[in-house]
Design a protein that fits this description.
The chain is mainly α and 604 residues long. 65% of the residues lie in helices and 6% in strands. The chain contains 29 helices and eight strands. It has a six-stranded mixed β-sheet with strand order 2-1-5-6-7-8, with helices on one face. A two-stranded antiparallel sheet has the order 3-4. The structure holds one DNA strand of 10 nucleotides.
Length: 604
DNA sequence: CTAGGGTTAG
């Protein structure tokens, strides 16, 4: 045997081993060691082994080395290009990954399905629908748009970019045979991630009825549970929990976290806690979700205890966790603890406070009535853009709540420096004037908004009755179709009884708006005629609940904005009059009304 | 050889 054929024989036996080593390697040291061995064997230069090396370097995040290798290759095939692209994508450089698609076209190597799915998922990371559409078009031309994986990646891409309709169009255009568990799960998550819980639930129901016995996997289940959480569908959520148990996914942490979140958002903290307690060795995300849940129920000290438990177990909190703990302090009036936490975030946990932490802390001070301190902190925060808008808007509402019109004007000034969507802030401003008795000024803000064509999302509430949810809008007098009259009569009657109980407020109050406006911040009530023209959406939902939900069952109402003080008072009094429990989930937290008082102790 | 899906907040 000659020397060369000896080496060739060695290479032939060693190659499979080395390739195997490369495939399993995810650290630079072992990849480069194997690379060296391949070089020694003289077997590193073939396209196949170069591709393996390329992919391995990509997997361990060494895009520079992968690129160097790629540039030095004599021949590059579609795998070489795709491996490099994938390396860029997983190294957090999705823009560079997509750019390779054009470079590839110029060099005359046609992409395959692997290439398109990698490119599409890179666009998903960028949440760039424009770029994604270009990838989609190229895939279409090349005949890969119907591929199962490619179309699933496109569904995900459109979804992440917020183009739900486009995502659904891709999903619907898929050949039925190409639609598998992953594509269904992707479409479900598109809905769930875009706050379209009702659509997710409906699609899941379609899968159940004509899905050819496709068992729900943990991806689908976590998305649907997430969807139930978003829209507060406790009934369906419980049912999905049953399916989780039935299919043996209760030990999956992601599913468990989704359940913790769902129960907490549907008003049953005890179930959240139960699901959380089953998770062994909870990581930062389960801990964060239970802390946030605990905070929402106003159990501030309990949330702090969970936090120290977590830290004690060596679980590193992240930025979201700290935001949750700050929320806990805020909702329970633990102002000093909250401020200490904000000040020690960097030194204790290595996390720099960002705009949301400052906003939360400013909100906490504002709620507690420490408005001067709140202003100081707001000035110190140095936030920009939309973050600043949120921060100053929250301060503006604090000024309003504490009837500090002097400071409100100052905060209003700050808010107006930001030219984005200022509708919410203007509404708060107008309410500040209204509650200070300056109705003309309040009306001026409104006419200003009308002139500038600024609209605000209407406040709405909904209630689930026998697995159907009924939606109500403030000022709309026809809730749930035919029962509108009954609801209005009931509320009218309740208002009378509330007065007997010494309730000073009204279900309706002085109005500032024109009749055609349906603004949540204002009640409509025509004095003297005893006719309720409009009323807050949560009261309409409560009215329907009182009519149809059997006595003894708590009435659960969901709302997309914060509950106003008047409604909060009304709910308290009504809970005493009718001797029932109400649970209201508002934008931020839960209110549990019982026997004339609320779990938040009027602090929220 | 190279590809697709789920969780905490806002």
């Amino acid at each position: 045997m000659t020397a060369t054929s000896n080496a060739a024989a060695g290479a032939a036996t060693l190659m499979p081993l080395l390739i195997h080593l490369l495939r399993g390697a995810s650290d630079l040291a072992s990849v480069s060691a194997t690379h060296a061995k391949l070089l020694k064997l003289g077997a590193a230069s073939s396209v196949a082994s170069s591709n393996h090396l390329l992919a391995a370097y990509g997997r361990c995040g060494c895009t520079a080395l992968a690129r160097h290798l790629f540039d030095g290759m004599r021949d590059r095939n579609v795998v070489s290009w795709t491996a490099l692209m994938s390396g860029y994508a997983s190294a957090g450089r999705p823009r560079a990954a997509v750019a390779l698609l054009r470079a590839m076209a110029r060099s005359g190597v046609p992409p395959n399905a692997f290439t398109f799915s990698t490119a599409a998922s890179s666009c998903a990371r960028l949440a760039d629908a424009g770029l994604g559409r270009q990838v989609h078009a190229r895939a279409e031309v090349a005949g890969y748009a119907c591929d199962s994986v490619v179309s699933t990646a496109l569904v995900d891409m459109y979804g992440k970019a917020g183009r739900v309709g486009d995502a659904r169009a891709v999903f619907d255009a898929m050949p039925v045979t190409a639609r598998n568990a992953v594509s269904w799960a992707s479409m479900l998550s598109v809905y769930a991630q875009n706050a379209l819980g009702h659509d997710a639930i409906q699609l899941f129901a379609e899968l159940r009825t004509n899905g050819e016995d496709m068992a729900p996997n943990h991806f689908m289940l976590s998305s649907v549970v997430n969807a139930c959480a978003g829209v507060g569908r406790l009934g369906i959520g419980k049912c999905i929990h049953g399916m989780v148990l039935h299919h043996g996914h209760e030990d999956n942490d992601v599913v468990a976290v989704a359940l913790v979140d769902m129960y907490s958002k549907c008003g049953i903290y005890e179930y959240s806690k139960k699901v959380f307690d089953r998770i062994n060795q909870p990581s930062v995300i389960p801990y964060t979700s239970i802390i946030v849940a605990t905070a929402k129920y106003g159990l501030g000290r309990c949330a702090l205890a969970l936090f120290s438990d977590m830290v004690g177990r060596g679980v590193q909190p992240n930025s979201v966790t700290l935001l949750g703990v700050l929320h806990a302090c805020s909702h329970s009036g633990l102002v000093d603890t909250g401020l200490q936490l904000l000040r020690s975030m960097r030194s204790e946990y290595g996390i720099d406070p960002c705009a949301s932490h400052y906003t939360c802390a400013v909100d906490m001070l504002g709620r507690a009535g420490q408005l001067e301190e709140a202003f100081e902190l707001a000035d110190e925060a140095q936030v920009n853009g939309n973050d600043a808008l949120m921060l100053w808007s929250s301060l503006l509402s604090a000024c309003r709540n504490h009837k500090r019109l002097d400071l409100a004007t100052m905060a209003g000034q700050k808010v107006s420096e930001f030219t984005q969507d200022v509708a919410g802030a203007l509404v708060v401003m107008s309410n500040a004037y209204a509650s200070a008795g300056q109705a003309d000024d309040a009306a001026a803000v409104w006419s200003n908004m009308r002139r500038r064509g600024i609209r605000k999302d209407p406040g709405c509430s909904w209630i689930e009755i026998k697995d159907i949810s009924y939606m109500f809008y403030a000022g709309v007098v026809s809730p749930a179709g035919s029962r509108a009259g009954e609801v209005m009569l009931l509320l009218d009657e309740l208002e009378g009884k509330m007065r007997e109980k010494g309730y000073k407020g009204r279900i309706g109050s002085a109005r500032v708006l024109d009749a055609d406006e349906e603004e949540d911040g204002n009640h409509h009530h025509q004095e003297g005629r005893g006719v309720m023209v409009g009323v807050h959406s949560e009261l309409l939902a409560l009215g329907l609940g009182l009519l149809v939900i059997p006595k003894g069952m708590a009435i659960r109402v969901m709302k997309n904005l914060r509950m106003c003080r008047d409604c909060h008072e009304a709910f308290k009094v009504i809970s005493a009059i009718v001797e029932r429990e109400f649970v209201v989930r508002d934008l931020n937290r839960f209110h549990h009304f019982r026997m004339g008082s609320c779990s938040c102790n009027d602090y929220w």
